[in-house]
Amino acid sequence: MSVDLSQFIPSFLEESFEGLELMESSLLDLEQGDDETINSIFRAAHSIKGGAGTFGFNNVTEFTHLVETLLDEMRDGRRNIKQDDIELLLDSVDCMRLLIESIRDETECDTSKIFETSVLLEKTLATDGIKVSDPLTINDSEIVESKTDDLSTWQIKFIPEHHLVQTGNDPLLLFNALADLGEVTLVACAKELPALNDIDAEEIYLTWNLTLESSASEDDIKEVFEWVEDECELIITKEDIISSDLPSLEISSPVLSTETPSFEEPDVILPAPTNEKPVETSTTNSDKPSSKAKNDLGSIRVGVDKVDSLINLVGELVITQSMLSELGNDFDLSKVERLNSGLEQLLQNTKELQESVMRIRMLPISFAFNRFPRLVHDLSKKTGKEVELILKGEQTELDKTVMEQIGDPLVHLVRNAVDHGIESAEIRLANGKPQKGTIMLNAYHQGGSIVIEIKDDGGGIDREAVFNKALEKGIVDENTVLTDAQTFDLLFEPGFSTAKEVSDISGRGVGMDVVKKNIQSLGGRIQVESERGKGSTFRVNLPLTLAILDGQLVQVGTETYIIPLITIVESLQPQKELINRVSGDMVLYRLREDNVPVIPVYQLFNIPCEFENIENSLLVVVEADGQKVGLMVDDLLAQQQVVIKSLNDNYQQVEGVSGATILGDGSVAMILDVPGIISMALAQAQLNQKNRSTFQPKITQSISEGVSS
Amino acid sequence: MDIQMLAEEVPVEGEYSLEGIDFITSGEQYLTFLLAEEQYAVDILCVEEIRSWENPTRIPNSPQYIKGVINMRGIIVPIVDLRMKFNIGEAVYCETTVVIVLTVETEEKTRTIGFVVDAVSDVLNVETNEIKPAPVFGGCVPQNYLDGLVNVGENVVTILNVKALQVVEKHQVS
C-alpha cells in the first residue's frame, strides 16, 4: 500500500507557518542588510515550495517559486535590495500565508490579491535585466523553465504487474513524479480488467500510456520508475516532433473514471498572466476575511530536554512504585519508617512530574511577540509615524492556552499605542522628544503570574478628554471625582473612544472593553498608567497557567471551599473592636486604614455554618478589581495546588464558583470566584435595599404614630 | 451462501423465547428502575454506570433536587435526585439507593449526569411498536420527559426521555 501523504499535511502546514514567520521577521531585519538573513529567508521559501510540491499544492508552489526567484537574485547579489522589494516580499509572505491558510481551512482563498502580487513580482523580476522566461508558465517545473527550448515528447507505456500496489508502490505517485518533469497526458487502458466479481481490490489490472512533454532525458524518466523496474514492463520511446495530443490517446475508458487514479494536469489556480496590465478591479480590502481563521495549532513543539526530564521522572516514579509494592508484600510495623520515606519520595516524584508536565505546555512568549515587528512596521507606514519597537523578556514562559488567547488583546493594545499613543513627528519634535517614537513590549514573571507591559513614549492619555467623553456617554456625572486609575478604567467601558477621528487602525471604540473582557476571562487584569506628555503603560497581569491554581482551603459548615491564593490579601482573626456596623446591617471591618465589607459565605451560599457570628469566625481578606472584601469562613485548612475542573461541562456555570477540583480524598470541592462573589454580594445588598425601601413608608408611619401617640 | 438459506436459519423475531440470553434481541433495551413503587426505564445505551449512593458536594444556591457534584474518575458529575425532581415518593437514602449515571450526546454538547433512584431492577427488551404514548393526564412527571409506556406483565413501565433529562434548567436562587 502506498504511503498516505495526507497524514503529513498538518506538519507541512505547521512548518510552513513557522517558515513564513521566519521569513517575515527576517525580512524586517533585512532593512539593516545581512547576507545570512537573506539566505535564511531563501531557505524558508525554498522548503515551503518543496513541501507544497510534494503534496501537490500547485498554487503555493507556483507563487513561492516567483518569490524564490526574486530572493535568489538578491542572494546572488544580482539585485540590490531595495525598500520596495522588501515591501513586495512582505506582501508575498502574506499571500503565501493566505494560500496555505486556504489549504488548512479547505476553503477557497481570495485569488485577486495573490494574482496582483504575482504580477508585481513578475514585473519586478522582469526589470533589472535578469531574464526569466515568462514565469507563470513554468508552473511546477523548474527544469522546463531552465531549458525550455529543447522540449521533446516521450511516449511511455507502463504495464505494471498485478501485484504492484502490494509492494508499496502507487502508480499515482509515479505519475505525479513524472509530472514534475513536464507536461503529462495520461490514458489508462482497461482491457485486462476482469469482471466485477473477480476483481481483487489489491491488484492492478490497468496499463497506462503516457505522453510526456519535457526536456528530461531518458535516464530522468527511468529514474522515476526506478523502484518499480522489476515489477512492470516499461517502454519508453522518444518522438522528436512536438505533436500536441495524439487524438488516439485521448480516448479513455469511461467505465474506469473512478478506478483510475484520476490524473489531471496540475491545476493552475492562478489566472494565466497576460502581458497587458492587470485590470485594477479589486485593489485592497481583500485581505480582511482571511483573518477570521483561528490561529491555534493543534500541537506544540517541545524541547528534547523537557521530554528527557519527563522520562527521568517517570523512571524514578516506577522505581518508587516497585519499592513501595515490595514493601507492601509482607508489611509489618517495623517497616513503617521505610514506608513513610517511600511515601515522601512518591510525593516528591509526583510533584516534580506535575511540574514537568506543566512545563511542556509552557512556551516562550516570543510566540506571541513575534508578530509585532511586522505589525508595527505596517502601522508606522500607514500612519506615517516613525516607531521603534523594543521587545524584552521574550523568553518568559507562558501556558499555551493563555498564549493563544492573549495574542489578539495585545495586538489591539499595540495598535492603540501606535495610533493614539505616539504623536506625529512634528509634535514630537516640538515637544523636544526624539522624532522616532518608541514602543516597548516587556514580559516578566511576578509571583505566580506573568506581567506583560506595553509602554509607549507618546502623548499619554488625556484625562480631561476621557472624563468629558464619559460625561457625554452618561457613565459619570459632573460631580464625580475620580482617581487616575478610575479615570483610566473608563477606557475599558464598552463603546468608549477618545480618538478625535476614527482611523483605519483604531478608534471605533470597540475593542478596549473586549480586551478587558478577554483578559479577565483568562483570570488576569489590566492596569493603565499614564502621564501627560510622557507616555502610557498598559500592564497586563496574567496567571501562568489555567489548569492549576494555588488555593487556600477553607471550611464553611461542612463544606470545603477553595480560595485562589492569588486573590488573598491576608487572613485574620477578627478583633471585636475593629468590627463596625454601618447603615443598618452592613458589617465593616477596619483593616488598618481601609474599611473592608464583610461577606458571610454561609449567607451567600445558603448553607449552615458553625459560627454565624463574625467574632468567632475567621476573615479571609481578598481583593478583586481593586475592591477588598472579607470573606467570613469557619476555619482555614491547608494550602495546596489544585487542578481546575469545569462545572460547565456537565452542569452549568454557577454564580460565585469558578470551577471545582478534586481533593486528596477523592471528594469534590468548589473553587470560589472572588470577583463573582463580590458582584453577588453587591446584588444581594441592592436587593435588600430595595426591599427595605418598599417597606419604608410603613415603618415611618408606625414611627410617626408612635410619636403622635 | 444463498440469502434465502440464511434467512431460514435466522429465528423469526418473537418466535423463540430466549430468556436469559439478552444479546439476541431486536428492538431496544432499557434499564428499569424504581421511583417509590413506580417503574421507570431509560435507554440502556446511555447508561454510563450505576453507582451506590455517596454524599455529593453541594453546589451553592442550586435547586433542591440537585444534590451536588461527585468525582467520577476525575470527571465532575452533577447528581440529580429524580424523586425530588418529579416529586415522587420520599427522598430517603438507604442501601438500595443508587445513582444511574447517564451520558447523552446532544447536538450542542455531551453531558454526563447522575440520577438518584430508589433501586435499579431489570433490563427490558422492548419492541418499538410496544411503546404506547403516555396519556396526557396530570401526573408528577412533566409530559416532555415521557417517551411512552410499556406493559410488562401486570405492570406498566414509563420510558423516560434521556435528552429531556439531560437538560439542565437555568436556576437562579436569590
Overall description:
The complex is a heterodimer of chains A (709) and B (174). Chain A contains 20 helices and 22 strands. Chain A is of the alpha+beta class and 709 residues long. In chain A, the strands form five sheets. A six-stranded mixed β-sheet of chain A has the order 14-18-19-17-16-15. A five-stranded mixed β-sheet of chain A has the order 6-8-9-11-10. A five-stranded mixed β-sheet of chain A has the order 20-12-13-22-21. In chain A, a hairpin with a 2-residue loop joins strand 8 (437-446) and strand 9. Chain A folds into five domains: 5-140, Four Helix Bundle (Hemerythrin (Met), subunit A); 145-257, Alpha-Beta Plaits, CATH 3.30.70.1110; 304-363; 365-543, Heat Shock Protein 90, CATH 3.30.565.10; 548-678, OB fold (Dihydrolipoamide Acetyltransferase, E2P). Chain B has a single domain (28-166), classed as OB fold (Dihydrolipoamide Acetyltransferase, E2P). In chain B, strand 9 (146-152) and strand 10 (155-160) form a beta hairpin. Chain B is globular. The model of chain B has no long low-confidence stretch (mean pLDDT 79).
